[in-house]
Specification:
heterodimer, A: about 280 residues, alpha+beta, Uridine Diphospho-n-acetylenolpyruvylglucosamine Reductase, domain 3, Enolase-like, domain 1, six-stranded antiparallel β-sheet, 11 helices, about 25% strand, B: about 775 residues, Aldehyde Oxidoreductase, domain 4, five-stranded mixed β-sheet, 19 helices, 34 strands
């Protein structure tokens, strides 16, 4: 059962930052946080409800980047016209996350911070070379970072730096993930996943790069999304990539099976990408 | 009221044929369930109610050395911390076949998840905080986790003694020790129960066979997922014990509770609001004794609600391994079948002995089998206890029997329809000697199935079709009662002990009463499942409600009409033969007529009174011969297999519900599609998996149940109505049929798509991929 907890409802990012510590944690949709609390895995003293902070749900283009507020729900990202125009691959993947309740309730920022290894969002954002912006109140104990505005510190991390392991990120307890930034323009891409239960067995994102190359990210199958860059798509050896990965065996598949379907889905994703690139 | 008012007017329009029965009426409970207004057990919270949390064993098999409750008792709000030591003076176990099931573990725990301590608090927070602080010291014992381990020569015993049977004669043959034997017999093995079926000369028949086909197949350990997990609330008053619970069979639960507290049956009241699904998993006693001992100790109402994990560790379905061997002539005529079903039944017997008997009865199918030797064992292991599950032994048994036929069809060069046709019984033929002949036309049903499947069949590679037939001796032991009370305004209350568990019995009972009395459905009210204020019903299971409760209700209506007629003959001062029935009333001599209400008011002499009709059903007349009816299952699927991943898509699902008469065709379709879908669940997705002492997927995220997205592309649910059942208007039961042979239909369809015969369910993508590639079930990771 859900243990008792305090609730703070800040109306601004700076007010939220003042509340954050080891025992007082950010809360938005609760799709993963409340589950973990119900299971007794964590028992924070206070939840900092971010839903009253308007700027966390903004979508805008800024300095050649698509900026997505961390509090946007998966549904909101999937349906946003700017996302559809500039990063259709993300819109596509977001529309397939979890189930209708999770998409309505869960947020892009919450998804990344929870670092569920089978996240569709993390895989696609890795392929899009996205970064997250973390902000903390100035003068508190936190990681080193560049100075932010208005007495805050901030730093930007790409997915590889941000995601450290299953359910483990580099976000410090006093930091808030404020937004996700996708460099523009985004080239043609595909996301294919193999999913037989609640979460994918393997998710493969491939984004065109240069004349014949691509960035390939394989997620869900191992502990972290694994990224590969190729100058020439034709040279990709799906079996070899799958062989390099360390699949996490579970009820959806053994190591052997997961390696096999990873190779299958890499091949299928690259075939689909080739079709997309060659399409007029 | 004057006689002049009683003129010849039909109260309601004269009906030709049936007005209400057989119509696809909207369910009675639909609106309140959709809007959330419906009351379930979880909504029942008496004033001053305490809340209970179960502390469960974290060992598979261990002796309990000590329980330290001091820290738990120190938690503010904790009222009691109860162990089996506190049950002195009570009968501390339950079980309707053998009362082997400890309410709280006594001396030792027999499975991970077994209730050891019950913590009661003012609220759930204090109770669960207290539960976290109970310290239990164990001395580990060797555990038997599988059939092979349990049956090994020197296997450790899950139960050291054999238990005396309960007083219920219909179960007494299933207990190891005779009833009322005071001294328990020592157990020598882990066999809960054995069952055999034999006729003819099997050895000679096999010797004469041209083709012999043998199949070994594993049926998975399942959880019959109902949206509502188990929950109960108990309360002692001067009137006795009152328990409100999520129970399919309140009267069976009452018997167990009366034994625990040594109370007269009349002083135990068990009532059941709506059930959020049951599928057999809410048959028999579950949490009721726990809530009741909490109330007994604290002298206050106690509520106990478990989550899905708690429900899985309360009851799951029997896993099975079955070997089936069949001898055929070269023409595909069955000469003999020999088989053994072994059920993995978990730590307590619960209903597994009966599930076993049914699995053995239901394994060989609705075929002419001149020589048979079937046997079965239900085996205790240190796993969660197994009990009833929709289909009741039939899914486990039919899996082997039908798959074996499909393998034989391949060897004999016959198509699966033709092989079945050559052996299928005709209406009236017995498949179990001395029992009721088959009351269904399976040849006609199979024809309907074949026509539909072939109409849309694809000839693409990696596609395959599979069909399955099954016959279940259904209806259970026919004991049923019903009361119909006609009111002064002509409305009627029908009282039945049958539970509305989502299957739609409430509407069916209304339709029946409206039909029999000729009154509108709107004026019929139903009172169900309350042992203190209703009518006796043995069980809500075995697809029996429409048939057996239906008969009781029909008879209760007849009884009420007979009484009304007697009263009318007094009023009209005429002989009873001059009274005739009208819809909602009677006609008398000289063109007189009266509504039910007018008769009642006039007879009592005030605007008061009522007429009570009583109907009973027992082993007599049409229900003398067992089983009361056969529930047949007729299903077919077409699957497509992804050659690279092994992922299976169900292209076609075809079912024939052979129900005699569909009281509510929409409900029958819903039941059949629900059963078929649940059948696809165990065929393709569902399996509880043990790793060491505990289940690794005791939740519905990892225990994969069917979803909307899994629904087959084509669904054809046909209903065959031939009026061949013993129930009202020729009705027979529905609700399990399509689940029973779904496993073999899917397995053989996949076999035809891939060219390889599977040896276990569910056929998850990885299993199918391994099957296609000749890989073992698991890799040796050394």
């Amino acid at each position: 059962m859900l243990p008792p907890f305090g609730l703070a409802r800040p109306r601004s990012v700076s007010a939220a930052l003042a509340e954050l510590d080891e025992d007082s944690v950010p809360y938005w949709g609760g799709t993963e946080l409340l589950l973990a609390m119900r299971m007794g895995l964590i028992r924070p003293r206070q939840l900092v409800d971010l839903k009253g902070i308007a700027e966390l749900t903004e979508v805008r283009i800024e300095d050649g980047e698509l900026v997505l507020g961390a509090g946007l729900s998966h549904d909101e990202v999937a349906r946003d016209p700017l996302v559809a125009e500039h990063a259709p691959l993300l819109a596509y993947a977001e529309a397939l996350v979890g189930n209708a309740r999770v998409r309505a309730q869960g947020t892009i920022g919450g998804n990344l911070c929870f670092a569920e290894p089978r996240s569709d969002v993390a895989t696609v954002l890795s392929a899009l070379s996205a970064e997250v912006r973390l902000v903390a109140a100035d003068g508190t104990d936190g990681a080193d970072g560049t100075d932010g505005a208005d007495g805050t510190r901030e730093r930007r991390l790409d997915m590889a730096a941000f995601l450290l392991g299953p359910y483990w990120t580099d976000r410090q307890p006093d930091e808030l993930l404020v937004d996700v930034r996708i460099p523009l323009p985004v080239t043609a891409g595909v996301y294919l996943k193999y999913q037989t239960v609640e979460r994918p067995t393997v998710g493969v994102a491939a984004v065109a790069r240069g004349a014949a190359g691509c960035r390939l990210v394989v997620g869900a199958v191992g502990e972290l999304p694994a990224g590969f860059d190729f100058e020439d798509v034709a040279s990709v050896d799906a079996e070899a990539i799958a062989g390099e990965l360390e699949p996490t065996p579970d009820l959806t598949g053994s190591i052997l099976y997961k390696r096999h379907v990873t190779a299958v889905f890499i091949r299928r994703a690259l075939a689909e990408l080739a079709e997309k690139v060659s399409a007029p | 009221m004057t006689d002049s008012k009683m003129k010849a007017h039909p109260v309601f329009p004269e009906h030709s044929g049936k007005s209400f029965a057989g119509k696809a009426v909207l369910r009675r409970d639909l609106k309140e369930k959709v809007t959330g207004a419906a009351v379930y057990t979880v909504d029942v919270v008496p004033p001053g109610c305490l809340h209970a949390v179960v502390v469960r064993s974290d060992r598979a098999h261990a002796r309990i050395i000590d329980v330290d409750r001091s820290e738990a008792l120190a938690v503010p709000g904790v009222v009691a911390v109860i162990t089996s030591d506190d049950l002195t003076g009570l009968f501390p176990r339950f079980g309707h076949i053998v009362p082997d099931h400890c309410i709280l573990a006594i001396d030792k725990v027999r499975y991970y998840g077994e209730p050891v301590v019950l913590v009661i608090g003012d609220d759930l927070y204090s109770a669960s905080d207290g539960a976290d602080l109970v310290r239990i010291e164990y001395d580990e014992l060797p555990a038997v986790m599988t059939i092979d381990e349990a049956l090994a020569p020197d296997a450790t015993l899950v139960h050291e003694e054999q238990y005396a049977s309960t007083g219920d004669e219909s179960f007494s043959a299933m207990a190891a020790a005779p009833d009322d034997s005071d001294t328990a017999l020592p157990a020598t093995d882990n066999i809960t129960h054995s069952h055999e079926l034999a006729w003819g000369d099997v050895q000679a028949a096999f010797a004469a066979s041209d083709v012999i086909v043998e199949t070994l197949i594993h049926f998975p350990m399942l959880y019959g997922y109902a949206m509502e997990p188990y929950n109960s609330v108990a309360h002692f008053t001067d009137d006795g014990l009152h328990v409100t619970s999520s129970a399919q069979h309140p009267y069976m639960v009452r018997t167990d509770l009366a034994r625990v507290f040594d109370l007269p049956l009349a002083k135990v009241r068990v009532d059941v609001p709506y059930l959020g699904g049951g599928y057999g998993t809410k048959s028999y006693t579950k949490l009721e004794p726990l809530a009741a001992i909490g109330a007994w100790i604290t002298k206050r109402p106690v509520k106990l609600v478990v989550d899905v994990e708690g429900a899985i560790y309360t009851t799951r379905a029997d896993a099975a391994q079955t070997r089936m061997r069949t001898g055929f002539t070269s023409d595909g005529v069955i000469l003999a079948r020999e088989y053994e079903v072994i059920l993995e039944s978990g730590a307590y017997a619960d209903n597994s002995p009966l599930v076993l008997a049914k699995a053995v009865n239901r394994a060989f199918g609705p075929y002419r089998v001149p020589n048979i030797a079937g046997r079965g064992k239900s085996v205790y292991t240190n796993t969660a206890p197994a009990s009833s599950y929709r289909g009741f032994g039939a899914p486990q048994g039919a899996l082997a029997g039908e798959l074996n036929l499909d393998q034989a069809a391949e060897q004999l060069g016959l198509d699966p329809y033709e092989l079945r046709r050559r052996n299928l019984v005709h209406p009236g033929e017995e498949i179990l000697p001395g029992k009721r002949g088959i009351d269904a036309d399976l040849h006609a049903d199979l024809g309907m199935l074949e026509e539909s499947l072939k109409r849309d069949a694809s000839d693409q590679p990696m596609h395959g079709i599979g069909v399955g037939l099954a016959a279940s001796d259904a209806g259970a032991f026919p004991v049923s009662t019903a009361i119909v009370r006609i009111q002064t305004d002509g409305s009627a209350v029908v009282m039945s002990g049958a539970t509305e568990m989502g299957q739609g019995s409430k509407s069916v009972l209304v339709q029946l009463v409206a039909e029999e009395l000729g009154i509108p459905m709107e004026v019929v009210q139903v009172v169900q499942s309350d042992t203190g204020a209703g009518s006796y019903e043995r069980t809500t299971g075995a697809s029996r409600t429409t048939t057996l409760v239906g008969l009781a209700v029909q008879r209760a209506c007849g009884d009420a009409r007979r009484k009304i007629a007697e009263m009318a003959s007094e009023i009209f001062e005429c002989t009873p033969d001059l009274i005739d029935h009208l819809p909602g009333g009677i006609s008398g001599p000289d063109g007189l007529s009266a509504t039910f209400g007018e008769v009642i008011q006039r007879w009592f002499g005030a605007e008061a009174g009522e007429v009570t009709g009583v109907g009973t059903v027992r082993r007599e007349g049409v229900t003398q011969k067992m089983p009361p009816f056969w529930e047949v299952g007729v299903v077919g699927v077409e699957v497509a297999v992804d050659p690279e991943t092994g992922f299976v898509t169900v292209e076609q699902l075809v079912t024939v519900a052979d129900v005699g008469f569909a009281m509510n065709p929409k409900a029958v379709e819903g039941q059949d599609l629900g059963a078929a879908t649940q059948g696809l669940g165990y065929s393709l997705y569902e399996e509880l998996v043990y790793d060491g002492p505990q289940i690794v997927n005791p939740n519905v995220v990892e225990y994969r149940v069917p979803r909307m997205g899994d629904l087959p592309k084509k669904i054809d649910t046909m209903i065959a109505q031939r009026g061949d059942g013993v129930g009202p208007y020729g009705a027979k039961g529905a609700g399990e049929g399509a689940l029973n042979p779904m496993g073999p239909a899917v397995a053989s369809a996949i076999a035809r798509a891939t060219g390889k015969w599977p040896d276990r369910l569910p056929l998850t993508p990885e299993r199918v991929w391994r099957l296609m590639n000749g890989l073992p079930e698991a890799d040796d990771l050394g």
